[in-house]
Design a protein that fits this description.
Order of helices and strands: EEHHHEEEHHEHEHHHHHHHHHH
Number of domains: 3
Helix content: 40-55%
Largest sheet: 5 strands, mixed
Distance between the termini: 35 Å
Length: 365
């Protein structure tokens, strides 16, 4: 035995009692949570480490199984929920879903825009799941919700309208710009297919390395395929090569370049915000209606259908950018939580990490 370590065993009585409600059970003790096989301080230490370090570090340092860690953080999170009110003061919330496991397994996530905290999460991605949150919130608190940012999912809109009579739905700018990006990519793929047909029909003339500013017909499909990142990125983030690619597109395919400008027009609407953004959106809708590009004619119809939510987002400045950041952190936690048998343990870990009430390290002020 290593003379530098001394084994220590602590013993304490935990008598069995006959409860009138639960029958024979172990009496509650102040130094452990009910049903736990560890002391309260040990549980708190595991939870403190779980939100700050990796799965391997926790299991190796404390010599417990990862399944045990899942049970511990679930107990600690329930203990915190019994002492704090996560729903206190909610007025502006963001709602989104995130995949936590393959096979279309999703969590519905709710964050508080004002405090920046994760306030609720549950397994599922439908109206019934979200209604569970509003039922827990209660009718009085639901009436205090003024703004809800979300994507255009019907199940979110239906649940909000059913439970929050005073809430204004705000369309997420990220998703609306993503619609425009998808429309642009549809135009790019059509241009790429047309270029492939033209390349098969055109005679090939090997003339050395193709120049980006004037490629021969048989190199045009490859250039259009490689141009998608230049078309997707914001102008301020373009490299010199990507700027040259856009200049080449403007010269050889005006239709695709017009689609790129339409996409940038949508992004500019949300950059302006307020009345200036709404005026810009009016002009954009008129432009898209006359552009003769089917993908953008279809997009302007979708934007008109969601105009009330988009205008609310422009007036309030709310978006799901913060909840997307929260989702990114939850994805990281999902990797850390790999091996949990129950998604409740993942939810508990997310609430401990992002809910604003992290467990304290025992013995520290």
């Amino acid at each position: 035995m290593d003379l530098g370590t001394v084994p220590v065993w602590l013993e304490a009585d935990a008598p069995r009692v006959r409860c009138r409600v639960h029958g024979p059970t172990v009496a509650g003790v102040p130094w452990a949570r009910h049903g736990a096989g560890h002391t309260r301080d040990f549980d708190d230490t595991v939870a403190w480490l779980a939100v700050r370090s990796s799965k391997t570090a926790v299991t190796e340092l404390l010599r417990v199984a990862w399944r045990t860690v899942g049970a511990i953080i679930t107990r600690v999170q329930a203990d915190i929920d019994a002492t704090v009110d996560r729903f206190d003061g909610l007025t502006r919330i963001g709602i989104d879903e995130i995949s936590y496991k393959r096979g279309h397994r999703y969590l519905t996530v709710v964050v508080d825009h004002d405090s920046g905290r994760l306030v609720w999460a549950a397994v599922g991605r439908d109206e019934a799941t979200l209604s569970t949150f509003f039922e827990r919130l209660g009718a009085e608190r639901c009436a205090r919700i003024t703004h809800v940012s979300a994507d255009a999912a019907t199940w979110i809109a239906n649940a909000v309208r059913a439970h929050c009579p005073n809430a204004v739905l705000c369309a997420d700018a990220f998703h609306v710009v993503a619609w425009a990006t998808d429309a642009l990519d549809e135009v790019r793929r059509a241009a790429w297919n047309d270029a492939r047909v033209a390349a098969r029909r055109a005679p090939r003339r090997p003339n050395g390395r193709p120049r980006l500013d004037a490629p021969p017909h048989h190199d045009r499909p490859r250039a259009l395929k490689n141009a998608r990142y230049a078309l997707w990125k914001n102008p301020e983030n373009l490299t010199g090569h990507q700027r040259a690619t856009l200049a080449w597109i403007a010269k050889i395919d005006p239709r695709l370049h017009r689609a790129y400008l339409l996409k940038e027009g949508v992004r500019m609407v949300f950059a302006l915000k307020g009345q200036a953004g709404k005026d810009a959106l009016d002009r954009w809708i008129g432009w898209a209606r006359r552009c003769r590009i089917p993908a953008f004619v279809k997009l302007q119809r979708a934007i008109r259908r969601h105009r009330r939510e988009i205008d609310a987002a422009l007036d309030s400045g709310l978006s799901n950018a913060f909840i997307e950041s929260t989702n990114t952190k939850i994805r990281l936690l999902t990797r850390i939580a790999f091996g949990f048998k129950n998604p409740d343990a993942l939810i508990a870990l997310a609430l401990l990490s992002l809910g604003g009430h992290r467990p304290a390290l025992p013995g520290r002020p």
